[in-house]
Amino acid sequence: MANAPHNQTAAPDTAENVGATGEDITFETNKVVDLAVTLVVFALGAFIVSEASTFRTGSFPDLITARGLPYITGGFMMFVAVVIGLQQALSWNKFPGRFTLTVGAPDEPGQEASALRAFAAMALAFCLLGLWLPVGFLIVTPIALFCMLWVMNVRAWAKLIGFPLGFTAVIWISFSQILGVVLPLGPLTAIARSWGLTP
After folding, report:
1. DSSP label at 188?
2. Cα–Cα distance between 15 and 112 in angstroms, integer?
3. pLDDT tens-digit map of 135-191
4. Which is higher by pLDDT, 57 or 48?
5. Which of 78, 77, 92 is nearest to 34 (CA)?
6. What is the 3-state secondary structure (H, E, C) of 146-157?
7. Going by C-beta distance under 8 Å and a sequence separation of 6 or more, which residues neighbour residue 140?
């Protein structure tokens, strides 16, 4: 969303110095793109609230219910989008034309910001959501985490293998075996039932 730096306060000589000093950088950003992102955030929050309204609340007394966290999350997203939208409207008047100025932090040395990396991680999250039921939690979760770590430029095999497997095992034991939450297992359902691990 941000284009090439427009100017930089106390401009250091090198990119490494920029990251080390923590100086802010002023960027030109496209107003249409900024507005589109704000509207998407608001729409996503509204969608979350709308979907949460269809959740079953259950028969046990619960002040928050299953709808509570989605309501809070979606409502917060809509509130933030409105606040940002107002800030954009007020600031854009100072800069006629398609572009406006915004201040941001410089990239960490050796770890440049990447829109492709961010959208790839989001795509993997949606794939995890879509494949959870047919493929199963124990299969799709470690694969998705492995891919996310790879997208984030993690190349140490101990981390690429150890974290996804360890995280999946901890979540499975905590929620399925201790708390009794039924997690989808896909093709592993029959085996898990024969071992008494799932109803």
Report:
1. G
2. 10
3. 999 999 999 999 999 998 899 999 999 999 999 999 999 989 988 888 999 999 999
4. 48
5. 92
6. HHHHHHCCCCCH
7. 128, 131, 132, 186
Nearest to 46 by CA among 69, 87, 76: 76
Residue 110, pLDDT score? 72
List, in order, residues 6 or more apart from 10 with CB less than 8 Å away: 21, 23
Assigned token pair, 19: 């990251």
Question: In the structure encoding, which two tokens stand for residue 129, read together?
Answer: 């959501």
Tokens, residue 154: 């993690």
What predicted TM-score, i.e. pTM, was given to this entire model?
A: 0.59
Q: Are 113 and 107 in contact (CB under 8 A)?
A: yes
Specify burial of residue 68 (Cβ count, 10 A radius: 0-12, 13-18, 19+): middle
Q: What is the 3-state secondary structure (H, E, C) of 135-176?
A: HCHHHHHHHHHHHHHHHCCCCCHHHHHHHHHHHHHHHHHHHH
Question: CA-to-CA distance for 76 and 78, rounded, in angstroms?
Answer: 5
**How many CB atoms lie under 10 A from the CB of residue 152?**
13
Contact 106, 19 (CB under 8 A): yes
Cα-based distances in Å from 101 to 24, 82, 177: 12, 19, 52
In tens, the pLDDT along 59-81 reads: 665 666 778 888 999 999 999 99
